[in-house]
Amino acid sequence: MIFIMKKSILFSLASLIAFGSVLHSCKPKKTGQIAVDDDAAKQVYVAPGHYDEYYDFVSGGFSGQVAVYGIPSGRLLKVIPVFSQNGENGYGYDENTKSMLNTSFGFVPWDDSHHTQLSETDAMYDGRWLFINANNTPRIARIDLKSFRTAEIIELPNTSGNHASPFITCNTEYIVAGTRFSVPADYENGDVPIKDYKEKFRGHISYIKVDKNTGGLSLDFQLALPPFNYDLSHSGKNASADWSFFTCYNTEEAHSLLEVNASHNDKDYILAINWKKAAEHAAKGDFDWKPCKYAHNVMHEDTEQATSEILNKVKVIDTRKYNDFLYLIPCPKSPHGVDVDPSGEYIVGNGKLSANLPVFSFTKIQDAIKNHQFDGKVDGINVIKYESALHGEVQSPGLGSLHTEFDADGNAYTSFFISSEIVKWRLKDCQIEDRIPTYYSIGHLSVLGADTKKPYGKYMVAYNKITKDCFLPTGPELCQAAQLYDISGKKMRLILEFPTIGEPHYASAIAADMLKPNMMYFTRLADNHNPYKISTAQQARVERHGNRVDIYMAAIRSRLVPDNIEGIRLGDEVYFHVTNIEQEWDIPHGFTVKGNNNAEILVMPGETCTLKWIPNRVGILPFYCTDFCSALHQEMQGYARVSPKGSNTPLSFTIDDKLPSQFAATKPTTQSAAAPTTHKRK
What we know:
Elements (H helix, E strand, L loop, with lengths): L1 H24 L4 H4 L6 H5 L9 E6 L6 E6 L4 E5 L21 E2 L2 E2 L5 E9 L2 E11 L4 E6 L4 E7 L8 E5 L5 E5 L18 H4 L2 E8 L6 E9 L3 E7 L7 E7 L8 H4 L6 E7 H10 L3 E13 L4 E14 L7 E6 L3 E6 L5 E6 L5 E5 H9 L3 E5 L2 E4 L1 H4 E5 L6 E6 L4 E6 L4 E6 L5 E6 L4 E6 L11 E6 L15 E7 L6 E8 L6 E5 H4 L25 E5 L2 E9 L2 E3 L2 E6 L3 E8 L8 E5 L7 E3 L4 E6 L5 E6 L12 E7 L8 E2 L29
Parallel strand pairs: 13-18, 19-24, 36-39, 38-44
Antiparallel strand pairs: 1-2, 1-34, 2-3, 4-5, 6-7, 7-8, 8-9, 9-17, 10-11, 11-12, 12-13, 14-15, 15-16, 16-19, 17-18, 20-21, 21-22, 22-25, 23-24, 26-27, 27-28, 28-29, 30-31, 31-32, 32-33, 35-36, 36-37, 38-45, 39-42, 40-41, 40-43, 43-44
Protein name: Cytochrome C oxidase, subunit II, periplasmic domain protein
GO molecular function: metal ion binding
Subcellular location: Cell envelope
């Protein structure tokens, strides 16, 4: 019987994949499919000197970063370093930011970032912070949207594969995160046979509290749950605002050959959690303190230096004891995304192996709970009857549904990976309105503002995995792609295609006008409290403390001060503390020294950054500014003399005591660093 079941499942999976391949191969060639209107170019054209309407924050996938694009132009505006070192500006290499990549496993210079979330107030974007997950070494980062910089990273214990993350509640009270891989908890003996999966493994979901004023992150509590795979999540809005929803697959609790052994059950689950009740349990003491290790890293805005702390315990609520706040809802089959519409009433489960797309009603879920319409329990958790929670099903919409987004007019848009398309359908009656191909194998999609209760609804972006005929070929490794659609009319229209960095997963877009008024443009020197700051070139100096040499350097167009340094010896640790004493927007200075074995540093106006250098040879080593900053940029250089260990060469440096005025700190061009010099292109 088991053999027949496995054979049947293998056949059905193979048939589904084969059918998807046939469907894909039967498509007309891409060039014949794209019927772009004559005015499409006008819709996406942003003239030189003009700005895009939206910032689109796109996860970088295996790059570990966040990419920022302008919409509708598709122009790449910035790559924000988050979980991976970045040689372009020294993030993760320099002494200021290196601690941001500390973990309980040590220094980890890379990760896999999947999902972005913008902070919200009353289920509307407030423009304060962006959050993103690290999938491999489980972490969550907070990015400050005043500076577009990573401000904080917190590691999650008892978690492996932080995929269902970092989904916020509608007032950013909590970030919610779930483990993709159930594993033995950190507080248990992890050296167990893998075959003991069902008895020894557990899943954990984390609730990270967000300080409403500073954005500071703290791990409030975790839920210990059955050993499923917790794939994705979203929180509710309006009536469902106190609830979080997670997709669960591998409810078979298999541990090998998951494409077969985790596909036996006709339905898996959506886990519905009343997070407010869970928080009440935590506040009442219905938890156990469990030992663990996790890092909490903070970039301090006033000193521009990061610190890292290892924490050693966490509150864990055992849901076998306390489970009056969570319920399981059957959902076909191997669900991936779970998405909540703007009203908070409809919850869509996207089953990767399901022929139909189920839509659940929050009202019906509450009625089912009230009337005890359950179909047994799993690990003490009540299972709501499928029909009792169901609003309706979208019949045969496509193959391989992954994610659903919403506009403000009651329409939903679902991505289908195997059939490479987006299907538009109505929430009220689950009827299909339109479908359009993507090129190719779409994963996530983003209707701008869809995470809020009032989506913008003008544009939709598809993030595609396969791009073999989209752009000029670049050898075996190709970029992935985004495609922009106009959804303002009844029919979806493809209007732009552009390449992306890394592997885009989810993205979050916000109106540019919400961020521009609060943007930080440069740091006033008076507000720079870095202990190694200097405010004028005359304050530049070199100091020795044993085998440590500290160089306090000023960078100003077009000179590095001091520019000739002697008396450094082999065996010394040399720290270049470079302060950019410019007080004008968009005048960065870079710095590096020959043979430096980490990266350059890129120092913004008014800021101080430290580069550590351990010279490993005797000689004269040049250093220079790496960012072309003026007509005399090439003259912005100097020399470091390195002598043998034990040499009696005295420490010395050159600095003109009568520096001309152009080498003194420039005066701020405005009274506030929050506003740039007025500049409009004619």
